[in-house]
Amino acid sequence: xxxxxxxxxxxxxxxxxxxxxxxxxxxxxxxxxxxxxxxxxxxxxxxxxxxxxxxxxxxxxxxxxxxxxxxxxxxxxxxxxxxxxxxxxxxxxxxxxxxxxxxxxxxxxxxxxxxxxxxxxxxxxxxxxxxxxxxxxxxxxxxxxxxxxxxxxxxxxxxxxxxxxxxxxxxxxxxxxxxxxxxxxxxxxxxxxxxxxxxxxxxxxxxxxxxxxxxxxxxxxxxxxxxxxxxxxxxxxxxxxxxxxxxxxxxxxxxxxxxxxxxxxxxxxxxxxxxxxxxxxxxxxxxxxxxxxxxxxxxxxxxxxxxxxxx
Length: 311
Fold this sequence. Notes:
Layout: E1 2-4, H1 8-19, E2 26-28, E3 33-35, E4 40-42, H2 45-52, E5 57-58, H3 66-75, E6 80-82, H4 91-94, E7 101-105, H5 117-123, E8 128-135, E9 145-152, H6 160-183, H7 205-208, H8 216-226, E10 232-236, E11 239-250, E12 263-265, E13 271-275, E14 278-287, E15 293-294, H9 295-301
Parallel strand pairs: 1-2, 1-6, 2-5, 6-7
Antiparallel strand pairs: 3-4, 7-8, 8-9, 10-11, 11-14, 12-13, 13-14, 14-15
Helix pairs in contact: 1-2, 1-6, 5-8
């Protein structure tokens, strides 16, 4: 089989599959992308893992190029497995593996179709999510379901990274359980109920900005869902401050002498902001052009922010 993937989510799955001997004949991943301040080209995490395990890697810019399709035809794979790859699969490629393309998607389809299911689940405060293995068709996240596995998230304060890693491990287990049964014809893929379909929230620049008049728990979910990428920020005195970690102090704590969006110091010398229905305490932040730091460290040299109102 051929494995398509690029992100850390896909890397975790590939590593788990390799540990149990389910080694792909070929790995397809995104081309290297510029990273960091110096914008040095860095290979995808999946490429690094594949090369460490002596698996051939292809990094096509376009998936309908004849030379790339020829490579796939030469492999003549039984099936292709795709997860967190980052490009749409054209129909000319979709039809090449004998038994088609499978996709592991980190939500309980047909809920949260689209590119940002993990962020969307946290943003919307869902109590349950999971992973779904589908046989791909021409439409995105639409094909019939081979198997799924549920994951409960009651009252937990998962960050994007934490939930992503949990779902990747769950996904690898689902693949290892379900694919052999599917190959033997013991599982018949079942069509999704389109009437129940929901779609991911497309993350925009507006989602990255904190509006302090929102519910304090929504702001908490925003910080947890969107870190580390693209991150969330607030603006004070025209300075952008990224907020990496924090927590609601008390949902009913509305300080009479504070305005919504006002920065103040807690008794523990942390930075906090008055929200519409509570106080959000900032634990870790990153001022524009500086390294990340605790809010206590930030306050030592930035008392100017106290009493200011976020823009």
